[in-house]
Amino acid sequence: MADVNLSPYTAEQQAMDRRRKMAEAMQQQAVLPIEMPTVPGAKVSHLQGLAKLLQGYIAGKNLQKSDAEQKAYENSVSEDTARLFRNMGKTETIPGDIITPGKEAIYEPSVPIQENLDRKQELIDLYAPDPTNAARAAIGYNLVRPEDRERITNLPGMTERREIPAVPEVRTASRQVPYLSADLLDPNNPLAMKTGQGRQMLAQYLMQQEAQKQAAAQAELAASRQLHAFNPEQNVGTFSGGKFNTLIQGQPKPMTDAQSIDAQIKLFAAETEAAKAADVGRPVKSFNLLPKGVPLGAVDSGKLTPDGRKIYTKDGKYHVEDK
Asked: Number of C-alpha atoms within 13 angstroms, CB side, residue 180?
């Protein structure tokens, strides 16, 4: 990759400033009075006045040229800036590499069918026999059935023209690449940024993008190494790629006597409520019974463990139902 100039004062701008200073110095020199000779008797040449005029004219032209160069450079910088902001975050599709080249459709030429041509010639010989063998030919012609004569007459003399269909090329999968890349920093690339200032802005953008990628990768690596445990009796693992990866398989404790009694009370209350509702015709009040091993007051978080068990929360802690 070509060297990247990150200085805000680009080489192009320096060259234009040098040319402008030279033109201004020439113009300043042109307006100075002609130096009179100090030698007694020496005269001032009339060509010195013309030289001053020519010097002023050239200086003025150079200043006009410097103004035009500065304006063109500023327009190019504006185009590079607009191109940079317009294509930030955009990607382009790069076709995959060719695995098998494609083939165009071809046509096989027609060729004579010699067997059919021979049969037709035999029939023609029966129609117009050799005079020395006319009687025998007439007998042979009469022995050929009319349908056979018609079939032989209609035999194709040439094969049909056969088309071999085209074969499309086989490529690897296309890929998406950022539109703004380091290739646009190379001045030899026809698609590169036009100005040094544009290449400087692109280089800063690419370095910022790379820094963000590295920070995101480090954050993801740190998160993947952090252990998560729902409670001492449940699984311990890490989250990476949006999934929970179990590292230590938990050993759920059986229900205590108090939890068993509480579950039986809730079941009895639900059955009683259902019986009352059936008597008076009102809707049955629903009870959400907590699974075995989940403490009272826990709330369903709506999440599941990798093996399909519900996750409940209470007092900032996770609880997982038993299998």
From this structure: 25
Contact 161, 107 (CB under 8 A): yes
Extract the tokens encoding 57.
């004219």
Question: pLDDT grade, residue 37 (50/70/90)?
Answer: low
CA trace torsion 116, 118, 119, 123 (10° rounding): 140
Q: Which helix (H) or strand (E) holds 78?
A: helix 46-86
Residue 303 has, within 13 A of its CA and on its CB side, a CA count of 13
C-alpha span between 140 and 133 (Å, rounded): 11
Mean pLDDT, residues 258-281 taken together: 65
* CA 76-78-83 angle, 5° bins: 95
Classify residue 24 by burial, with Cβ atoms within 10 Å: 0-12, 13-18, 19+: middle
- Could you give the CA distance from residue 223 to residue 282 in angstroms, rounded to a whole number? 52
d(CA 238, CA 242): 10
- The mean pLDDT of the chain is 75
Nearest to 55 by CA among 32, 35, 31, 30: 30
Task: Give the Cα separation of 44 and 52 in Å (integer).
Answer: 13
Nearest CA among 301, 304, 293, 295 for reference residue 246: 304
Please spell the DSSP secondary structure of 250-269, one letter per residue. --PPPPPHHHHHHHHHHHHH
Q: 149 Cβ partners below 8 Å, 6+ apart? A: 123
Higher pLDDT, 94 or 130: 94
Contact status, residue 159 vs residue 113, Cβ threshold 8 Å: yes
Q: How far apart are CA 63 and CA 163, in angstroms?
A: 71
